[in-house]
Amino acid sequence: MVNITKWSGLVATVASLVVIVLPAFFRVTHSQALTSLLVGEVAAIALAHSTYRASSGKQAVPLSIAASVVAGLLLLVSPVLLSPFDPFLTLMLGTSLVVLLGAVLSGVDRVRGGEAGRQTGAQRLAGN
To answer: Which ranges does the record mark as transmembrane (predicted)?
Structure first.
């Protein structure tokens, strides 16, 4: 579960970085650009923190899990409410689903994580 959490967190962090720069390629409203920028930054920071902790053998902090889940939900809803036109809407929905999935997997790893989640990377490699 640790490797799944680590790699999904990395992919979700990259997806949240894509969300930050996505409004630069489309003509979106000012409020949508600000939402993508600010909420995408919060998601990127929270997901990167959870990914770092998962890869260093620690469990994710509940605050970063909650922040990334809320940010993922806001990113999922914002293009539907603020600027619903086709290419931007499709890309935002896809990337925000990846962000939300990474956040949920961090939470699942926090709840269900066993001994492997509390080992460092070197300890996991030595055990294999």
So the answer is: 7-26, 32-48, 60-82, 88-108
The CA-to-CA distance between both ends of the chain, in Å, stands at 15
Instruction: Tell me the C-alpha distance between 47 and 13, whole Å.
Output: 6
Residue 1 tokens, joined: 């579960």
Alpha carbons 13 and 48: distance in angstroms, whole number = 6
Look up the pTM and report it: 0.82
Q: Give the Cα separation of 82 and 8 in Å (integer).
A: 28
pLDDT of residue 120: 62
- Both tokens of 78, joined, read 């914002």
> Cα(52)–Cα(60) distance, rounded to whole angstroms?
9
Rounded Cα distance between 74 and 40, Å, is: 9
Dig out the tokens for 93 from the structure: 């929905």
Tell me the two tokens of residue 33: 């650009």
What one-letter code names the amino acid at 96? S
